[in-house]
């Protein structure tokens, strides 16, 4: 069985806000027009934590000092699947840079679910604030339309 691509999705938290990325700069972007956390693919030979630290630095210019993965999302859209590791990170420093993938903005957590985003994200984002709780969800889409969100068990 082919191993699934692994990705990381990071939500940097400061002053009851998350740093979100509005995807509006890349051509043929599956996330175009949506607000998401920063992140990307885990590279060969890289741990998920190393990938999260690298992606934060590359996309935001910020330096992560400590982190813990909050959960996993098995993302399925038609025949495509990936295993996404989700982080909420509060221990970081530095100055924001311009991101070549979109516009970075600090969004109040209390209003972020009103923004255009993947519908499935709205199921796991509220779980990020729960300390000592690791979630596993399978989020299934058909042609980018949400079909189901269920607890995920490794197969």
Layout: helices, strands, pairs:
Blueprint: E1 6-14, E2 17-23, E3 35-36, E4 38-41, H1 48-60, E5 63-66, E6 69-77, E7 80-89, E8 91-93, E9 102-108, H2 121-124, E10 135-142, E11 145-151
Description:
It is a single chain. The protein has helices at 48-60, 121-124; strands at residues 6-14, 17-23, 35-36, 38-41, 63-66, 69-77, 80-89, 91-93, 102-108, 135-142, 145-151. With 155 residues, it is mostly beta strands. The relative contact order is 0.24. The mean pLDDT is 92. It is built from 2 helices and 11 strands; from the N terminus they run ββββαβββββαββ. The longest helix has 13 residues, at 48-60. 11% of the residues lie in helices and 45% in strands. The protein is globular.
Order of helices and strands: EEEEHEEEEEHEE
How much of the sequence is in beta strands? over 45%
**Gap from first CA to last CA:** 11 Å
Q: Which structural class do you get from the secondary structure elements?
A: mainly beta
Low-pLDDT stretches:
none
How does the overall form come out from the CA principal axes?
Answer: globular
Give the biggest beta sheet: 9 strands, mixed
Can you count the beta strands? 11
- Number of H- or I-type helical stretches: 2
Helix content: 10-25%
Mean pLDDT: 92
- Mind telling me the C-alpha Rg? 15 Å
């Amino acid at each position: 069985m082919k191993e699934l691509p692994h990705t990381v999705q990071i939500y940097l938290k400061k002053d009851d806000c998350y740093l979100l990325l509005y995807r509006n700069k890349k051509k043929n972007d599956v996330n175009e027009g949506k607000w998401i956390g920063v992140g990307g693919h885990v590279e060969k030979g890289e741990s998920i934590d190393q990938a999260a630290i690298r992606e934060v630095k590359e996309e935001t210019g910020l330096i992560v000092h400590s982190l813990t993965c909050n959960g996993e999302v098995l993302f399925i859209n038609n025949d495509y699947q990936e295993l996404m590791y989700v982080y909420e990170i509060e221990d970081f420093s530095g100055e924001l840079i311009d991101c070549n993938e979109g516009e970075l903005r600090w969004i109040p957590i209390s209003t972020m679910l009103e923004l255009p985003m993947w519908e499935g994200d709205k199921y796991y984002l509220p779980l990020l604030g729960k300390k000592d709780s690791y979630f596993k969800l399978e989020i299934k889409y058909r042609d980018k339309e949400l079909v189901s969100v269920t607890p995920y068990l490794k197969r």
